[in-house]
């Protein structure tokens, strides 16, 4: 027979959530450190995208996390305008850019942006990975 479960004292009950929360905070801080390192020390283009209907990793949380990154262009990021992002004359979301950091908010998409709004996802990839690397003389033909 298993021994009876001992009830937690008041101090034990309040410590448990704090320990769990600090472990989560360390994980988020570590992830933020990697992004901050890349933003401050490389010219790597970082593209973050978020489905406007995402309930798992919501857009508000993504924006908040990005606003708290410590990087050399943080002031430019705060001042950068959010521009409409359209596909075939239909606004599919918004894009915000500063230096090598780019945020896309994709409408009509949840956690699975490539499945939920394939056309917007495809256009985002084309704009950032194909068109942005082509000389303008090729694009104007």
From TrEMBL:
<dbReference type="Pfam" id="PF00450">
    <property type="entry name" value="Peptidase_S10"/>
</dbReference>
<dbReference type="InterPro" id="IPR001563">
    <property type="entry name" value="Peptidase_S10"/>
</dbReference>
<comment type="similarity">
    <text>Belongs to the peptidase S10 family.</text>
</comment>
<dbReference type="InterPro" id="IPR029058">
    <property type="entry name" value="AB_hydrolase_fold"/>
</dbReference>
<protein>
    <recommendedName>
        <fullName>Serine carboxypeptidase</fullName>
    </recommendedName>
</protein>
């Amino acid at each position: 027979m298993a021994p009876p479960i001992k009830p937690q004292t008041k101090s034990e009950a309040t410590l448990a959530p704090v320990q769990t929360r600090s472990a989560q905070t360390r994980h988020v801080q570590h992830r933020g450190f990697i992004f901050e390192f890349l933003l401050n020390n490389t010219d790597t283009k970082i593209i973050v995208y978020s489905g406007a209907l995402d309930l798992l990793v919501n857009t508000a949380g993504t924006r908040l996390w990005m606003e708290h990154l410590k990087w050399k262009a943080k002031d430019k990021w705060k001042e950068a305008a959010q521009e409409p992002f359209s596909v075939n004359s239909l606004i599919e979301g918004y894009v915000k850019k500063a230096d090598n950091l780019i945020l896309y908010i994709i409408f009509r998409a949840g956690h699975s942006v490539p499945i939920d709004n394939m056309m917007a996802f495809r256009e985002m990839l084309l704009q950032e990975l194909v068109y942005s690397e082509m000389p303008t003389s090729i694009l104007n033909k």
